Task: inverse folding
């Protein structure tokens, strides 16, 4: 097993890696950002110089040693640099989800007691100001973009450019203090506090030391043999542990170049321009990509449709084996090569993934059909299993051992075992120090021997040593008949259909399973246009009889598939409804990382769950919603409830 702790002999902190790169490889590209259609590049020298100047500027502005500093905004060069600046100045970076509403930010800012906030733009500054007296500890707000900022008349709201200037012209006293703070840091110094997505309640602050993040990053680089100069795309929330480890830790340690898209809307275009070597995305990203592919195929000519489906059927049979270099026969290999020229290659190119040598998905389980689709067209997509508390990596899939139903073997340095209750437990050098100011939760999650409880149910295969995750431990249960209930298994099968954005299954302790369905507006809207179906809103389209017919057909097909699994055949869907609104993080129904908060949804829509079980044909409901500007309102709807076909 690779020794991922060897990196600690060379570095004590992640910012030391940045400074080392600046000395050894000053002119190599480190960060790119697209602004106004043009890619701007920082070398390692630029990156280090900017980080040092901002660190000095923060001290000049009164930042205390060991104090938390919040960062909120989209993926930007300057905000990544600020991560290192805060660490250099002896502080602790606390990234916040950029799409969090003011009340969500309040919890993190109050809990962390951050006195300085680095914000991207006016939108983020406005959120902080809106909280006003609830944040008495906040002393300074630094903003990156000065557009519309002149309307603020406060000496405590200043531009980052001014802080950089203060740093570049800092006093001898500040320089001396800066060097002292850097010298005092060790591998055990806190490197970051990352707040969990809060699937089961209030988010917790996960404290990761420099040793945690250095060993996690080092192990992942060696495991997949990542090479200096490889390009990665940094587009996921900076507050998410995945982006933090990949973009802030693995990038400098492996000398990878990170690329920040211009915006979320331009991601796909920017992805094609970058042509990354390494790509990471949660299941929702790959579900969205598959939906866009299927929409385009539906718009294609008859001959193109036939060619696509013919070669995709071939890819489904042999694509995975071809990718792993296994024998598929001369005829199949030649036919696959033709398909690669006509279909698979252009498809990878249109997705911006022609150069991807390693792709990962994590965050929650991905549907096996979706996973196998991307591997079948030649993209080396792999699964990893991890969590914030592990510095991401618990298990990873080695090349040649990639399977859709397992999540791989223990990552470098990780020990794995299954508890008596079937819960997955791990121990590793990268596992978190503690939950910030929450010793009770720390002791409940991490025992005295360093074993961390994941909250997931699973088992380790005897022959291969691969881990298989069944579901969240709290979600797995039994139907009243005694048959196993594992909702994620069925939900992922449903989400393979481009028309279904989200599915939520209920049935624990019940006789049958029922489900909520969210349609995908872009996919179903495209279909409705072709069918000449007029609609004025998401709610109207979701309740259309023909949409219900389509969803019913998908559920019947999934029931047929599920019935073949002896262990989980009881999870077939008996009755369902199509929700009148999308599950939304602003309404607390899903997390900022797009995981369903199952218990919250069940409680909020208890009237709908009850109607699914009591035989009602329809139900009238009223739902509170939060609009983008923070205002609250409500929407009313009468939802149809239908029965699906159960297969014995």
Result:
């Amino acid at each position: 097993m690779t020794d991922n702790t060897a990196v600690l002999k060379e570095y004590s902190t992640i910012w030391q890696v940045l400074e080392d790169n600046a000395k050894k490889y000053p002119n190599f590209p480190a960060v790119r950002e697209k602004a106004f259609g043009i890619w701007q590049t920082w070398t390692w020298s630029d990156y280090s110089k900017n980080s040092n100047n901002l660190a000095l500027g923060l001290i000049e502005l009164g930042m205390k040693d060991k104090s938390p500093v919040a960062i909120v905004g989209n993926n930007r060069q300057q905000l990544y640099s600020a991560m290192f600046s805060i660490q250099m100045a002896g502080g602790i970076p606390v990234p916040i989800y950029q799409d969090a509403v003011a009340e969500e930010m309040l919890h993190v800012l109050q809990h962390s007691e951050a006195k300085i906030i680095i914000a991207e733009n006016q939108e983020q500054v406005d959120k902080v100001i809106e909280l006003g007296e609830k944040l008495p500890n906040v002393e300074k707000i630094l903003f990156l973009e000065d557009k519309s900022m002149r309307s603020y008349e406060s000496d405590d709201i200043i531009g980052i450019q001014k802080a950089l200037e203060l740093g570049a012209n800092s006093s001898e006293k500040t320089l001396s203090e800066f060097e002292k703070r850097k010298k005092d840091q060790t591998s055990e110094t806190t490197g970051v506090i990352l707040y969990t997505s809060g699937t089961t309640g209030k988010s917790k602050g996960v404290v990761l030391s420099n040793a945690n993040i250095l060993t996690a990053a080092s192990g992942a680089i060696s495991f997949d043999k990542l090479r200096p100069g490889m390009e990665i795309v940094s587009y996921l929330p900076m507050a998410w542990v995945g982006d933090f480890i990949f973009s802030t830790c693995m990038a400098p340690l492996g000398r990878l170049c990170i690329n920040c898209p211009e915006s979320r809307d331009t991601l796909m275009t920017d992805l094609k321009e970058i042509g990354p070597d390494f790509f990471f995305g949660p299941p929702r990203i790959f579900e969205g990509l598959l939906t866009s592919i299927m929409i385009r195929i539906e718009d294609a000519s008859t001959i193109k449709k036939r060619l696509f489906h013919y070669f995709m059927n071939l890819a489904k049979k042999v694509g995975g084996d071809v990718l792993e270099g296994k024998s598929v026969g001369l005829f199949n290999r030649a036919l696959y090569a033709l398909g690669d020229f006509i279909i698979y290659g252009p498809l990878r190119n249109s997705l911006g993934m022609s150069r991807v040598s390693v792709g990962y998905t994590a965050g929650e389980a991905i549907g096996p059909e979706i996973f196998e689709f991307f591997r079948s067209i030649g993209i080396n997509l792999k699964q990893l299993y991890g969590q914030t508390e592990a510095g991401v990596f618990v298990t990873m899939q080695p090349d040649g051992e990639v399977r859709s139903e397992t999540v791989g073997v223990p990552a470098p340095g990780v020990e794995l075992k299954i508890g008596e209750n079937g819960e997955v437990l791990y121990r590793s050098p990268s596992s978190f120090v503690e939950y910030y100011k929450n010793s009770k939760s720390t002791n409940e999650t991490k025992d005295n021997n360093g074993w961390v409880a994941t909250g997931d149910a699973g088992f380790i295969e005897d022959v291969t040593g691969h881990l298989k995750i069944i579901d969240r431990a709290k979600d797995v249960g039994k139907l009243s008949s005694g048959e196993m209930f594992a909702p994620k298994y069925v939900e992922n099968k449903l989400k393979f259909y481009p028309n279904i954005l989200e599915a939520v299954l209920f049935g624990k302790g019940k006789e049958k399973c029922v489900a909520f369905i969210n349609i995908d507006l872009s996919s179903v809207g495209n279909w409705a246009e072709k069918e000449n179906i007029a609609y004025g809103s998401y709610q109207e389209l979701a309740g259309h009889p023909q949409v219900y017919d389509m969803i019913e057909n998908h559920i019947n097909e999934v029931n047929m598939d599920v019935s073949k699994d002896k262990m989980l055949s009881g999870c077939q869907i008996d009755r369902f409804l199509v929700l009148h609104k999308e599950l939304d993080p602003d309404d607390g129904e899903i997390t900022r990382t797009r995981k369903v908060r199952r218990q919250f949804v069940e409680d909020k829509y208890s009237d709908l769950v009850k109607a699914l079980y009591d035989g009602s044909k329809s139900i009238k409901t009223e739902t509170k919603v939060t609009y983008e500007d923070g205002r609250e309102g409500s929407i009313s709807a009468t939802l149809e409830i239908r029965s699906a076909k159960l297969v014995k």
